[in-house]
Write a structure and sequence with these properties.
This protein folds into 2 domains: 3-97 and 221-244, Udp-n-acetylmuramoylalanyl-d-glutamate--2,6- Diaminopimelate Ligase, Chain: A, domain 1 (3-Layer(aba) Sandwich), CATH 3.40.1390; 99-218, NIF3 (NGG1p interacting factor 3)-like (Udp-n-acetylmuramoylalanyl-d-glutamate--2,6- Diaminopimelate Ligase, Chain: A, domain 1). It has 10 helices and 13 strands. It has helices spanning 3-14, 16-19, 48-56, 75-86, 95-99, 104-111, 141-152, 179-187, 200-209, 218-236, and strands at 27-30, 39-43, 61-64, 89-93, 114-119, 123-124, 127-128, 131-139, 157-159, 166-172, 192-195, 212-215, 241-244. The strands form 3 sheets. A 6-stranded mixed sheet has the order 5-8-10-11-12-9, with helices on both faces. A 5-stranded mixed sheet has the order 1-4-3-2-13, sandwiched between helices. Strand 3, helix 4 and strand 4 form a beta-alpha-beta unit. Helix 6 (104-111) crosses helix 10. The longest helix is centred in the last third of the chain and has 19 residues, at 218-236. The protein is elongated and about 55 Å long. It starts with a helix and ends in an 11-residue tail after the last strand. The relative contact order is 0.16.
């Protein structure tokens, strides 16, 4: 798979979602050349540790959900130095992946056993709307927490604010910690709201409106969308190898 084939396929599978956002802001390409890419490594985040790990595994191209954030002062510059040093290309795709049919929200909902996507997450007035999935049959809050912990491979925070059975799940992966998003989930009759970050306002408001809530980590609520993208690439380009780069569960609070 060469650069032109890769970029062409990215345009094909994301389509108008790329047109909705500025390149370099919400998606972009670093260190791309006319070479070919035989081994792809994927992760949620790009960090110096991820680039060095990719170099050890002889990865030609790293795919991530996030670019290195500008407010992580100096980290993006260090990542670019390491990419140049090791001759590794990097593609990141943020909001277009959040809203893609195979993206972060839908991929995690399917991992949790959702039978039907009722409503995909969308970009509305500068924020992410709630994605909604329907389980085949109702379950308990305790069983869903157990399933999510197993799927993410980490302990999750949860707050049981209602005794109702769980069948309709509302979700915004990553930083879906806005009270407006909880209110939207409630207005769509969701039995639980799932996201990847929490604040004081998140848990206070969830309790106030009586909405069950489960919170995993930002990194691991979003990894499945990146995996889905990597798998699509492997299905199209049979000669490439895909590996998941290891990220730590540094966001989990151990009690």
């Amino acid at each position: 798979m060469d650069t032109l084939l890769f970029k062409s396929y990215i345009q094909e599978i994301f389509g108008s979602l790329l047109d909705d956002f500025e390149e370099d802001d919400e998606y972009g390409f670093h260190q791309f050349s006319s070479g070919s890419y035989k081994r792809i490594g994927y992760a949620t985040n790009i960090t110096p540790e991820i680039v060095q790990q990719a170099a050890v595994h002889k990865v030609d191209l790293i795919i991530t959900h996030h670019d290195a954030w500008s407010f992580m002062y100096g980290m993006k510059e260090r990542c670019l130095e390491l990419l140049r040093e090791h001759g590794i290309a990097h593609f990141y795709v943020h909001l277009p992946l959040d809203y893609a049919e195979f993206g972060t929200c839908n991929s995690l909902l399917l991992e949790l056993g959702v039978e039907r996507i009722v409503q995909p997450s969308r970009h509305v007035e500068g924020d992410s709307s709630v994605g909604i999935g329907q389980l085949k049959s109702p379950t308990t809050m305790e069983k869903l927490v157990e399933t999510m912990s197993s799927v993410l491979g980490e302990n999750v925070f949860y707050q049981k604010n209602s005794e109702k059975a769980i069948q309709r799940i509302g979700m915004v992966t990553g930083a879906g910690n806005g009270t407006n998003q909880l209110r939207e989930a409630l207005s769509h009759n969701c039995d639980v709201y799932i996201t990847g970050e929490k604040t004081l306002y998140t848990v206070q408001y969830a309790r106030f409106i009586g909405l069950n809530i489960i919170v995993g980590s930002h990194t691991f609520t979003e990894i499945f969308g990146v995996r889905s993208l990597a798998q699509k690439l492997q299905e199209r380009f049979r000669d490439i190898e895909v590996i998941q780069l290891t990220e730590e569960h540094i966001e989990v609070v151990h009690t």
